[in-house]
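To assess whether the prediction recovers the assembly geometry, we first specified each molecular entity separately, as shown.
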Amino acid sequence: MNRRSCFSMPLRLFWIAAVCGTMLLCVCVGSVAIPLTETLQVFRGLLSGVPSSSTFGSIILSIRLPRVLCVALVGASLSVCGCAMQGLLRNPLADGSTLGVSAGASLGAVLALALGFQIPGLRYGATMLSAMFFAFLSLLLILSLAYLLDKTLETTSIILIGVIFSMFASSVMSLIITFAGERIRSITFWTMGSLSGSTYVQAIVLCAALILCYAILRLHAEELNAFAISEENALHIGVNVRLVKLIVLITVSVLIGVCVSIGGSISFVGLVVPHMLRMIFGPNHDRLLPCSLYGGAVFLMLADLAGRTVLSPVELPIGVVTSLVGAIVFVVIFYRSRKGRA
Amino acid sequence: MDHLLNVVNVSVSLQKKEILHDISFSLDPGSILMLVGPNGAGKSTLLSAISGSLPFEGSVEIKGKNIRSLSRQQIARSMGLLMQRNSGSFDYTVEDIVRLGRYASRTHPFSRSGSSDEKVLQAMEITGVDSLRSHSMRTLSGGELQRAFLAQVFAQDPDILLLDEPANHLDFLYQKDIFALIDRWRREPSKAVLCVVHDLALARKYADRVLLLHHGQCAALGTPASVFTRDRLQEIYGMDVHAWMQALYAQWEEPDPEL
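The predicted structure of the complete assembly is given in tokenized form:
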């Protein structure tokens, strides 16, 4: 195997260390600073089966750790989704938020909340399913509209349709919120993207979805490479183009749906992280997908940390932070790719 | 015995307009058939239909098996296509591109192309891109990129090579190299080439047989000498092609030492 393009052991260790380090940092820093030694003690206690009963222990275990875990998992998920979509569509600006998939998923979630759909036994089950379904539906709609506009699925036409669809979805959402009244007041905050008050249950759901979807995408790394070079070329080297496209799109929709139903729409993570990592580690998905997985986790944990600490005690929703960073990076990428073509 | 490639009554319609009408021909091992004809005659369309990227009527058989009953992977194992234009939007290396040629031969999704390294190296060597193996595809010239994708098709190791104007937009040196490579490749056992060319002189030099297309129909099929008759070309191209060729090339025959 090509040495330059594989995910080598040292690289894996580097990323695992980076994720663990960031996680530790995010657990320690906050409105109440917790010394590193205390934090390590809490974890040691947890591992040996004797949970610490100190104040620090309860802050870490019941507030910060579940939140940090959820943030890391959402970051990894969104970034992997962005990476897969960029490869599949041969488009460095593709991502759940630019394509309008996140908006579609939000709409689905809001709809489920407003109509009071419930699946007995699972508190967020209906919201989640509805978000996934709408994510897939909107992805399908956007891609077919873009395809009608131009058959090559050109960057600009996809993004144009994505933006229009996002506006449409958010206006429908506002409509629903207006009429639903009291029932979903918290939704306005939630649509901006927030992971405060996350629970371990949510972390487990996220983790399960991520493992499943990541495994599927990872198995299609070679196909994604072929797509990223050109879809026609992929067909001729023997890729079942239609099937692979459908598998990847469904997988991505499921993962984005789960993320959105838990954390709201957190934009630009899937755009910025894979793009920056591609510049460093190259476009080969055998290597880029795992890098995006870890890199997304690190990025979103840091964004969340910034949101919690920069204007403390005021807490910025995480989506605001990522949008701030992302919008700037988006413009830079867009200009660079335009210039590259001229 | 079955032909390597058997094309029977293939018709293609796009947006209710018939682009190709009832094309039939076959290809046997060791042969090289070139598709020629004026612009818009349907040469590339025919190639797309045969390679399975366009819907068509009629049948295409590879070694006696209908292409519709084969998976994309099976098709790719016996048929490889070099497109007219290749481009890329990411920084894939030449080696990445060539390695993808082994996709069709992998047995399960976990197997990466490790075991078939030799074919990849060989393909890069004969196309002369081994010195470029770690270069990004975006930094390559048109000729280098075309050779990288030719290496990909060679790594794919198909029986039938489909080429869509392989040397278009390329310098003479690349043109010569590419046709020399293709000519050598088809002499290996059970290989055959189907190639679209614009340049009748190239067809005359390299083809065993040519298929002359005109308005989506087969105007003639046979050896270059029998197909390229003065009257026929006059009728199809609307000009005296022979006189033009002679005018073009006569001046090159004997360079005047005085000049």
